Amino acid sequence: MLPADSAPTTNDQIQNLILESADFEEFLNELARFSAHQMAGDGDDALCGITLLRERKALTIGWSSDVAREVDEIQYSLAQGPCLTAAKEEREVYVPDLLEENRWGPDYATAVASYGLRSVLSLPFNLEGEAKAALNLYSDAPYKFNERAADRARGYTREVSQALRLAVRFAVHKDSANNLRAAMESRTIIDIAVGVVMAQSRCSQEDAVRILTEASSNRNVKLRDIAKSVVDSVDTAGTLTHFEEPVQQPVQQPVQQPGRSRAG
Asked: In what order do the strands lie in the sheet with 132-139?
């Protein structure tokens, strides 16, 4: 057991973040804010974003502020930048001064510098899987992340990699669940549309599916959108496709008749 006056380690503080966060999304944002505070040093401010790269899709899963998220997303819109390079190539990327930076063309450096930021440091996380991630640090001071700061950041990313692996695993599961839900809802709309076509055209299910498929192909519109237009044409209120856990009804207790005891 640690002495009462011992300062908590980084791992101790990360564990507290996990325990105190309402969900993993809140944890990721708290982790980004904690990371920004840890890496700023000398009482200065810093911004932090955590980039997740999975199945060729990049997104910021944790951010210390809205500005941190926005400057991360500049890279995603341009499909290039230090955090994408750090995540994809699993190597550290340092931008001493955005006003002197041209590795990713003028658009990236100009856009990020317009937020008043000058230096960037991106470090990859070791996630031990298909997903890749990077910690992105931004400062309004040029040459902020010198070798001493970079060395501190390297040690920090090693310490928090395990916690991030856990968070990413939850993010992946949530993404899979959302995809399944979307597929189920799409399937429901199509099934209802098939029924509408069968009733209106007095045809078989196979013929109804063929009619919808041909309409989708001829109009170059997704089958789900064609199906939705068919359903909306007969149901202006819209169709609900919510998939939720069934509500458990409370167990009804037998009502005892007046004047009769339980023993009978």
From this structure: 57-63, 47-54, 132-139, 119-125, 93-95
Q: How far is CA 51 from the centre of its chain?
A: 9
Query: With contact defined as beta carbons under 8 Å apart, do 48 and 33 qualify?
Result: yes
For residues 20-56, one letter each, b for 16 or more C-beta atoms within 10 angstroms of the residue's C-beta and e for the rest, the string is: ebeebeebbbbbbbbbbebbbbeeeebbbbbbbbbee
Q: Determine the distance from the C-alpha atom of residue 7 to the mean position of all C-alpha atoms in its chain, rounded to a whole number.
A: 32
Token pair 């505070």: residue: 37
Q: What is the pLDDT of residues 37-95, one digit of tens each?
A: 777 655 556 888 888 887 778 888 888 888 998 999 999 999 999 999 999 999 999 99
- What pLDDT score was predicted for residue 42? 53
For residues 148, 149, 155, 160, the Cα torsion angle rounded to the nearest 10 degrees is 170
The model's pTM: 0.59
Q: What is the mean pLDDT of the chain?
A: 77
Which of 126, 123, 114, 27 is CA-nearest to residue 71?
Answer: 114
Output phi, psi for 139, to 5 deg: -140, 150
Helices (H), the chain: 10-20, 24-40, 66-78, 82-89, 105-113, 147-201, 205-219, 223-234
